[in-house]
């Protein structure tokens, strides 16, 4: 069980500042969604939390320890990442790519033994990718690769998982499957999960809390009902959506409204607040 | 290296058989190469003479002392040096290709060959005949030139604390062109030394002795051992640097270690025998075509294949037009290229 804490962090590349004054935390057993428009810095936050880019100021604590003081291999045993559209070596098989998730658990003089193979194999079973095991990654579809990357992060057996658009290439059936899997893991194994999501409805359905990023800072943070409000949607995304109540579970749902510049009013569905 | 036999990874078994097969083939090729020459010695006699030198194997010395001298003092050091150099170049080539994620990378990509060539040419042109212990001035200057040019490229390419691989390639190509033009100018103005220089550049094992084996072998053993240790991280570098970091790899440290090791073994190899081309770029690709891209197998298989390939190439170089020797660089490309093209056509699949 680990907690991710971000205190007043500033992030950027070169001279350009992307995000400033970031403060939030992700607790064990909690699934937090990062939402916001294109280019708002969702991926940058994930890079910072996996120590790919250092914070310019402020501090990022993983399990109470300053992130830059944790050796890379140790950090990779704590925090796993599912990247968005990554480069994968096309000549490697799907199984070999999943097995790479075991790397941080192995020393220089160790090779993958039956235990590692077994963990990777079970990770593929849970993500429904076992049938792809012997295929070369170059032959796989975007959705299959997405599932493979989730299998890899499962094989990594970390205490926190960061996901960058994990459902971007998936059909709706797979979207639900993958997010169900991640949320179950989060609840059962008490993982801290932070997912950058494009789809506000998926974010609302699956996340305990949402963080809405806009213009280099946190625009709103809280439960789905606190964040996905007509006002926030209009301020951040401009016009074009209406917030309704999901007829089954009562969570906020955003419906698009083509050609309509104004926001419609909340409610209207069954079981509103 | 201990690898479990998992039920769902049948390709591993083929690769392990590949390693065992190549070890046997290497032994056979060594005996063959030692047997053939101006005096042909029967295969069995050669085997017994070689085995008699292995501790704990008793063999009845039923052969002449002259035969033993030919085999142990003249042919064997040459064959072993060819094997060591072939292994070194193939391993370095596989490492550079993996590190740069570029199928066109070879051991000479970042200035090793041009630096070695410049050092060697200066050695040819200096009016001294200084002799170190067991080696002359030319290998020493070639080795220094190789390491110096790589160090310059490395420092030119560094951006802050990071080493972007594309910058490294560009710096290597640019400095290589600069040094290459100096070498060309020196060759043109070298007069009677020209033949010797060109012969050196194309590579030759004609002057190989045990003393050279003793100098080159430790570098290659240590360098190759370091590279083999980092086979799994090298696999993970095939993703991208960001993913490699997220999977626990200290990317900058890995690049430094692998570049240093690969450069050192390349420099040691070319210093004594010249800048032999083609082995370093083609051998790893041939291995990939047959056994796949996993570095845990690619690297040891490249060690063995590179050794076998260069021993055979040297055998041809000294026998085809005997007593004239052909530069080995001519043979490696002449025989290696068609074989590689055959493999490429036969297995039409993604290899890199």
Can you offer a commentary on this structure?
The complex is a heterodimer of chains A (about 270) and B (about 350). Residues about 260-273 of chain A have low confidence and may be disordered. In chain A, the strands form three sheets. In chain A, strands 6-7-8-3-9-10 form a six-stranded mixed beta sheet, with helices on both faces. A four-stranded antiparallel beta sheet of chain A has the order 2-1-4-5, covered by helices on one side. Chain A has nine helices and twelve strands. Chain A has about 270 residues and is of the alpha/beta class. The two termini of chain A are about 35 Å apart. Chain A has two domains: about 5-230, Rossmann fold (3-Layer(aba) Sandwich); about 230-275, no CATH class. In chain A, α4 crosses α5. With about 350 residues, chain B is mostly helical. Chain B has a single domain (about 80-345), classed as Orthogonal Bundle (ABC transporter involved in vitamin B12 uptake, BtuC), CATH 1.10.3470. Chain B has helices at about 10-35, 45-50, 65-100, 110-125, 135-155, 165-190, 195-200, 210-230, 230-235, 240-245, 250-275, 280-290, 295-320, 330-345. Residues about 1-10 of chain B have low confidence and may be disordered. Chains A and B meet through α2, β6 and α4 of A and α9 and α10 of B.
């Amino acid at each position: 069980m680990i907690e991710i804490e971000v205190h007043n962090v500033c992030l950027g590349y070169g001279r350009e500042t992307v995000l400033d004054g970031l403060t939030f935390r992700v607790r064990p057993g909690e699934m937090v969604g990062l939402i916001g428009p294109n280019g708002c810095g969702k991926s940058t936050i994930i890079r910072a939390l996996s120590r790919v880019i250092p914070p310019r100021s402020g501090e990022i604590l993983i399990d109470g320890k300053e992130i830059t003081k944790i050796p890379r291999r140790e950090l990779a045993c704590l925090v796993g990442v599912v990247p968005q559209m990554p480069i994968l070596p096309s000549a490697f098989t799907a199984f070999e790519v999943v097995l790479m998730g075991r790397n941080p658990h192995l020393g220089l003089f160790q090779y993958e033994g039956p235990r590692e193979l077994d963990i990777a194999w079970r990770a593929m079973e849970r993500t429904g990718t076992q049938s792809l095991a012997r295929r070369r990654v170059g032959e796989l579809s975007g959705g299959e690769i997405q599932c493979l990357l989730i299998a890899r992060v499962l094989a990594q057996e970390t205490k926190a998982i960061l996901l960058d658009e994990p459902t971007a290439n998936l059909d709706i059936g797979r979207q639900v499957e993958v997010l169900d899997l991640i949320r179950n893991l989060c609840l059962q194994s008490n993982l801290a999960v932070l997912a950058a999501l494009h789809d506000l409805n998926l974010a609302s359905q699956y996340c305990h809390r949402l963080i809405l990023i806009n213009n280099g800072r946190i625009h709103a943070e809280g439960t789905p009902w606190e964040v996905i409000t007509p006002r926030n949607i209009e301020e951040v995304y401009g016009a074009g959506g209406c917030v309704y109540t999901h007829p089954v579970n009562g969570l906020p749902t955003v419906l698009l409204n083509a050609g309509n510049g104004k926001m419609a009013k909340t409610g209207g569905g069954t079981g509103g607040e | 290296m201990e690898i479990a036999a998992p039920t769902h990874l049948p390709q591993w078994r083929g690769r392990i058989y590949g390693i065992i097969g190549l070890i046997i083939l290497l032994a056979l090729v060594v005996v063959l190469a030692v047997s053939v020459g101006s005096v042909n010695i029967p295969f069995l006699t050669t085997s017994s003479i070689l085995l008699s030198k292995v501790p704990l194997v008793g063999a009845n010395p039923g052969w002449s002392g002259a035969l033993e001298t030919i085999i142990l003092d003249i042919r064997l050091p040459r064959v072993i040096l060819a094997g060591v150099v072939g292994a070194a170049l193939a391993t370095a080539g596989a490492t550079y290709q993996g590190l740069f994620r570029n199928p066109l990378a070879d051991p000479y990509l970042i200035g090793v060959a041009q630096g070695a060539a410049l050092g060697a040419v200066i050695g040819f042109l200096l009016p001294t005949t200084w002799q170190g212990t067991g080696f002359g001035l030319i290998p020493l200057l070639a080795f220094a030139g190789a390491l110096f040019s790589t160090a310059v490229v490395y420092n030119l390419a560094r951006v802050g604390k990071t080493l972007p691989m594309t910058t490294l390639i560009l710096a290597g190509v640019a400095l290589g062109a600069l040094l290459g033009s100096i070498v060309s100018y020196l060759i043109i103005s070298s007069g009677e030394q020209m033949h010797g220089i060109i012969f050196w550049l194309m590579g030759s094992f004609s002057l190989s002795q045990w003393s050279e084996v003793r100098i080159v072998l430790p570098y290659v053993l240590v360098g190759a051992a370091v590279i083999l240790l980092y086979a799994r991280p090298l696999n993970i570098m095939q993703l991208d640097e960001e993913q490699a970091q997220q999977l626990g790899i200290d990317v900058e440290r890995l690049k430094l270690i692998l570049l240093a090791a690969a450069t050192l073994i390349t420099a040691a190899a070319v210093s004594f025998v010249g800048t032999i081309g083609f082995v370093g770029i083609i051998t790893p690709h041939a291995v990939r075509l047959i056994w796949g891209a996993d570095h845990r197998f690619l690297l040891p298989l490249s060690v063995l294949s590179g050794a076998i390939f260069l021993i055979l190439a040297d055998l041809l170089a000294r026998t085809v037009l005997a007593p004239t020797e052909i530069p080995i660089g001519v043979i490696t490309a002449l025989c290696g290229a068609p074989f590689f093209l055959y493999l490429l056509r036969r297995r039409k699949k993604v290899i890199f």
